[in-house]
Design goal:
heterodimer; A: mainly alpha; B: 0% strand
């Protein structure tokens, strides 16, 4: 699995221009969301957490769909499956790489959010923690579905179609937790949202790992 | 590949006939015999189709989930056809639920939609299942289609309780839930009759749809060249 992870990270590093463009895409969508609301800074601040996560979610479909691109060229996936390695290792390597990438992307979008929506916070560490947990929730099922949809026609449409309904609880918990960090948490409910997010992550990291070998078998 | 689903050729038609008759009877009872509800008036009578639809929707989702699990364990294509039928019928029921719910909610609550956990879970699962049906249509290889849609169905079904509880939590923080309705015995008979009516209709539809799916599958496999058929079977 370490080798698989190393391969993924190396590939991502070599295609960093692509990550850069995904970041620009995310930042642009944050900019556009504010036009959907109008120049009301109070409302924008209130919705900032939701916009941040929607921006990250939209960007994630780009990075996730791209993550199986290398395997599809020259039927490299079949070659990888012939190796005497567990396909689960391949899955977890890819999922962790996507997780890291999405966490970095989400963290990079935070300053954009702070500037555009005036949504600053002093609890930067908890904000980064929420982004890491939320990115885990996106990447586990996202990697599995990307592995399926990369092999069919119309993959650009199918991946969000399958992924978006599924990650509703993760999105909800991430948005709620983020806005509690930004807007203040008078009722001390942050912990329970983080718990919900963590259990979503635990369930899907286990379940998708169990099911992945069936997805790639032939 | 033994995927016939055809042991009882006439059963689905009998079920459909029985279900339709019961449904007419139960709805007639609900519309004309059952007393008028005190606060909501005649609008409440939609409950006689809405609540039975909801119960049967849950059964259909469980059926689809069980079919998906059984396919992954047995690799018997009979379960793939049943999964296809379960996915489509439960999507239909979920769509009906959303429509009936909106018709009821507009005069009662004044809005078409409310972020109630049950409503939201039905809608989320409807979208998830429609996505899986789309996936099935885009995959040409029968073996892959069966495995992938089973995997996706399991993942979506596991999501259902998580969606329910997270939305419940999310909503309870800023909104009071509406008061629970107590159901008196006058309302009970048409409710029960319609529950069985929709159960029979649903089972009939699922059986017919599964039969259609397995015939299509058999046709698909027999028309591809022999080599490929050997690979997919």
């Amino acid at each position: 699995m370490r080798a698989a992870l190393r391969k993924e990270l190396l590939l991502q590093w070599r295609t960093r221009a692509q990550i850069m463009s995904v970041f620009v895409f995310g930042a642009t969508s944050l900019l556009l969301f504010s036009f959907g609301v109008g120049p009301n800074s109070e409302v924008l601040r209130q919705f900032s957490a939701g916009f941040l996560w929607l921006g990250l979610l939209l960007s994630s479909t780009l990075t996730l769909a791209e993550s199986f691109h290398a395997e599809m060229e020259n039927r490299a996936l079949e070659g990888l499956l012939l190796l005497p390695a567990d396909p689960r290792a391949l899955y977890y390597g890819k999922a962790i790489a996507n997780w890291i990438q999405l966490s970095l992307l989400g963290t990079a979008l935070v300053p954009v959010m702070v500037i555009l929506y005036d949504a600053g916070t002093t609890r930067v560490l908890s904000l980064v923690g929420i982004i890491i947990l939320g990115a885990a929730g996106l990447s586990a099922p996202g990697t599995l579905y990307a592995g399926m949809t990369a092999q069919v026609r119309a993959k650009q449409t199918l991946l969000p179609l399958l992924l978006f309904p599924l990650i509703v609880p993760a999105l909800l918990a991430s948005v709620k937790a983020t806005s509690l960090v930004i807007l203040g948490d008078p009722m001390q409910t942050l912990r329970s949202w983080l718990l919900l997010l963590a259990s979503f992550d635990a369930i899907y990291w286990t379940l998708c790992g169990l099911l992945y070998p069936r997805v790639v078998e032939d | 590949m033994n995927a016939e689903n055809n042991r009882f050729p006439r059963t689905p038609y009998i079920l459909l006939g029985l279900g339709a008759a019961l449904f007419l009877f139960g709805s007639w009872w609900g519309l004309f015999l059952a007393p008028r509800e005190q606060y909501m008036g005649d609008v409440q009578r939609i409950m006689y189709v809405h609540v039975p639809t909801a119960w049967n929707w849950m059964l259909a989702v469980i059926f689809a989930f069980v079919s998906a699990v059984m396919f992954l364990f047995t690799s018997n294509y009979k379960w793939d056809s049943r999964l296809e039928a379960g996915l489509e019928v439960s999507s239909l029921l979920a769509f009906l639920l959303c429509c009936q719910g909106s018709i009821w909610a507009k005069p009662t609550w004044g809005v078409w939609w409310d972020w109630d956990p049950r409503l939201t879970s039905v809608a989320v699962l409807l979208f998830a299942f429609v996505g899986i049906i789309a996936l099935r249509n885009f995959v040409d290889d029968a073996a892959r289609r069966a495995i992938w849609s089973s995997v996706a169905t399991i993942i979506a079904a596991v999501d259902l309780p998580i969606v329910y509880f997270s939305v419940k939590w999310w909503n309870s923080l800023h909104q009071q839930p509406s008061s629970p309705k107590t159901v008196s015995s006058d309302f009970y008979i048409p409710l029960r009759v319609n529950a069985f009516a929709i159960l029979f209709l649903m089972t009939g539809f699922i059986m017919l749809r599964a039969r259609l799916a397995s015939r299509r599958l058999a046709n698909e496999v027999s028309t591809v060249p022999l080599m490929e058929a050997g690979e997919t079977a």
